[in-house]
Design goal:
There is one protein chain. The chain has 175 residues and is mainly β. The protein has 2 domains: 52 residues, no CATH class; 98 residues, Jelly Rolls (Sandwich), CATH 2.60.120. The chain contains 1 helix and 12 strands; from the N terminus they run ββββαββββββββ. It has a 5-stranded antiparallel sheet, with no helix packed on it. A 3-stranded antiparallel sheet has the order 9-8-11, with no helix packed on it. The protein starts with a strand and ends in a 10-residue tail after the last strand.
């Protein structure tokens, strides 16, 4: 399964055009990368398409990533299969803060500010102190917290996500 991605640009005279119209295929861990910037965006910098960049969970410092990701139904894989897939995905994308947990989930933290939109299914966002049920068009602003995803529903869940590189700071004290 792939997704159509259209990337716009300008020609030498400044007229808008389609620089690329292509199908984005699955990469590591049921992710579909649409765009990756290695620094603050430039509208005229040479293009770097996802297949031309190393795979990683996080963007480069100062960069961003736009991707879809799939959350398989919880009963799709046996625990041993899930743990093996988590380790394979972690190694492939260099996510050192990712490991199978006692519950078999892929718990992780990134140094990013993430904008997540649920497109399909009814996944759950697992946080250390609570679990939040989600539905299509719910939005999650993920601010570098330790989390995992679950999908108790019968169909695959799909989410769109923009990750922005962010600085880690000390948490603000509650008022």
């Amino acid at each position: 399964m792939g997704y159509r991605c259209i990337i716009t640009g300008e020609d030498a005279s400044g007229a808008s055009r389609c620089d690329r119209d292509s199908e984005v295929e699955e990469s590591a861990g049921w992710m579909y990368h649409f765009w990756r910037a290695s620094s603050n965006p430039s509208l005229t910098a040479p293009l770097a398409y996802p297949g031309e960049l190393p795979e990683s969970l996080e963007p480069s410092p100062g960069g961003s990533v736009f991707r879809f990701f799939h959350i398989l139904p919880d009963d799709t894989l046996q625990r041993e299969e899930l743990e093996a897939l988590v380790l394979q995905t972690r190694d492939r994308i260099g996510a050192v803060d990712m490991a199978p947990s006692e519950d078999g989930r892929l718990w992780h933290r990134t140094a990013t500010l993430d904008y997540v939109v649920i497109l399909q299914g009814t996944p759950e966002l697992l946080l250390e102190q609570e679990t939040i049920s989600l539905k299509p068009f719910d939005v999650v602003i993920q601010r570098g917290t330790y989390h995992a995803w679950s999908n108790p529903g019968p169909e695959m869940a799909i989410a769109a996500c923009v990750l922005l590189s962010a600085e880690q700071t000390e948490p603000a004290e509650s008022a």
